[in-house]
Amino acid sequence: MKYILDTHLLIFLGTNDIEKISKKALKIYQNPVNELFISQISYWEMAIKINLGKLIIPVGLRSIMLQTHQAGIQMIPVRNEHILNYESLPRFDNHKDPFDRFIVSVTLNEKAELISSDKKFDLYKSLKRVW
User: Fold this and answer.
1) Structural domain boundaries in the chain
2) Do 36 and 74 contact (CB within 8 A), yes or no?
3) What is the pTM of this model?
């Protein structure tokens, strides 16, 4: 199965906050049969939040990137089809976060499931979220 990891999951894994991850999500992550991906936008989101002082990652973003690669999680670069798909996403008053919406676009475009604790993703009926 193909899965996209939400940014917070990437942070939990990179900072070894495993207890914050659901058993189901951890089982998916640990199963070598599953294909795991992150959107490049997640790195950008973390960089912006670190720069603004809204996110502190003691190990540093570079370390998170390296650990992600070493764990076999593949990075999906920003592509034109993701941007075009983003343009046509439904709009919801209670879900305006551009990073989350881009992750929705990538997940749908890549025909994957999203691993996230954020229930706001359930607004997108064609998106399958697991946690």
Assistant:
1) 2-130
2) yes
3) 0.90
Q: Each residue of 56-69: pLDDT tens digit?
A: 999 999 999 999 99
Q: Which tokens go with 57? A: 């990652």
Strand 35-39: give its sheet, edge to edge: 74-76, 35-39, 2-5, 113-115, 129-130
Among the listed ranges 22-26, 56-60, 94-98, 118-122, which one has the minimum average pLDDT value? 94-98
Round the average pLDDT of the chain to a whole number and report it: 94
Parallel/antiparallel/unpaired status of strands 113-115 and 129-130: parallel
What residues are paired with 103 via a beta bridge?
none
CATH 3.30.1330.60 given to domain 2-130: no
